[in-house]
Amino acid sequence: MKGRTEEGALDACRELQERVRILRDALERGDFGQGYQEALQKLDEKAPEQAETFFFFAAFAASRGEWRDALTLAENACRRRRMSRAIWRLLYMCHMALGERKAALKYRFLLMRTGEEKMTELTREELEASKDIIRAVFVPPYAAPFVGVLREKDGDAVFGQGLRLGEKLPYAFEEEPQGFPYRAGILNEEGNHGLAATIALFLLEKGKASGNTPLYWFSDFWFDILRAAEKEEAVLLPESLPCIVPLMGKGEPQMVCLRAGGQTVGITLAPGETSFVRLEKPCRLSANEPFLMGRPVKLGHSPKRRKLVLNILADGLSWPAQRLDGYENIPNIMRFFSKGVIFENCWSAAEYTYPSLASIETGLHLHKSQIFERSVFMRLEQEKRTISEKMRELGYYTVNLMGGGEGVVNGATRGFERLLVNLSVRQQASVGVVRTMTHLDAFREVDNFVLLHLADPHPCASDIALPANMQPKFPPETFIAEDGVTSVFLRPSPMMREANRWKVRVFDRELGILFDYLEENYAPEEYVVHLYSDHGVSVYDDDWLLADTHVGASLMMRGADVPQLGQVEELASSLDLYKIMAKTCGFSADEPWLDSNLPEVFGGKKREYVISNSIYPGQTYKLAIRTEGHEFRLETEAPTAPDGTVDMAQFSYQIRTRGKEPRIIASPELARYFLEIARRHTQPFWNLHMANFQDRPSRNADAER
Known about the structure:
Mean pLDDT: 91
Number of helices: 21
CATH superfamily of one domain: Alkaline Phosphatase, subunit A
Largest sheet: 17 strands, mixed
């Protein structure tokens, strides 16, 4: 933080840390006597919902050999702290003590994935039973449809990356409740059948031969993730008709026979490519080898739904940056949404896409979704319902026509029937707009919910090429070398700002074509469009990670039941999209754990403040709280722990006025106000320095059995 800062501490955090220290020391000694029990009672009185409270109760139950109770308590701890290595270790011990080795292995594998355990000895049967866990755990969680594979090299077991085309994508911590799990193919947009899959498999074999398959080799591929069941025969009855059925081939090109009304038609399926078949009569589909069939899309509109709900995620579109430029780079966006609502004062919950996408799709802050770590697999809990799940329950055909793969694996986008994903930054509006119009023309007879995740406004790190018009416009000395620097830490420079402005203008130009298409093909009461961003950009202002242009987000909507207010100054969060869509689309959003708020302009209540924070293991925790008149900045002294916990015993902070000329101020009254908000927000993920078991938590015979 630039400028004068104050030193701060949360005494309540220090108090809980001391209570946990007593319990930790006793745990390490294996002493669960009166001192442990008294300290645990005091912790329970002070913080009954803290993960550490459940953890130490679980350890106590384990010491008494009450392993089933210990498991229940440890699972409660894990729900609150799903990335905790200590809790993983305790869960492993509980399952092993109960003879549940397969359940135990997933936690063992997670400890191996994070480098805290060596490879465990497995029987061939256990290895076979654990394949899906291995495939899910040992691969980056943003890289669907890649999975971890176990190979032998020089007599040792090593983990590599495999590409599963046509096979069920594995998730170690969630059994798919539907009969249509996600399967992966490769998108074919008017190209040669099977060519892309052949090239992808060639690259995979080349990587296997060299011992390494870099994921960036696949940056230009579009993967087609489809919810599909494996079938050898399927019967479509009158109540399902008319419909459109997605089909995907497995293995070699195959023929599916369609029998209807005394006629037989052959349908050729390319391996790993989705085809759509329109069915209007009762029929039977059959093949000699299993093929993949998606959930049939029933044709017809419902008066309870809109014909189209379109969500445009404008990745990195910093609204403060657009405001600084007088909106000159986004004339089409301003024209279209001026007939709806444009929030001028909206802020993202996080500073980069991986956690922010999950927070938007769930209406939850990072510590509740617990999706903040991009390198280790973790799945969103089933009870946390996403926007796409809510829309599917309303009967919409849910498709993500352009996006990344992270939401497929961590569950943030699990309500979509089909997702077209790219592992890099190929989500350009020029392609996405045409793809959207093509889809809407094909599925005009159904009620569509479409997500279009566009990356044009997002500045790219040094390993991605700049727009071709930048080098001729700037001398070489203006190209700042920032090898290895991620996009959130790119430094401001005239060249980077101009590149961002150019890409925003291109983005706006392409969206103008899409907006014209909507206005020409849909009546105003037939559609709703929401445009929003997940974060801002770093190339415009100071080096504070949560500065205005870094986390100043876009949020706007237009269409049926959206008031025509134009630009409004009401405080809003990117989290609020969840309840706004509940209002515009008609799903329920009354879950008590939601952090989303329905703004006053939609009949809700004004926010008093908005929170943005950065929970990134290995870096200091950063928190920004904004009110209408002030901004509070906080940064911890200690780095964020691997499990996402933060030590609030020592930090620096400052209070600033908001406006054209912000200044740092000293106000004890405001400090108390903001520090109390900071305490309430951070307490669920305080780092209380919990123990990390290396051995069983007891030396008695019952605990060792």
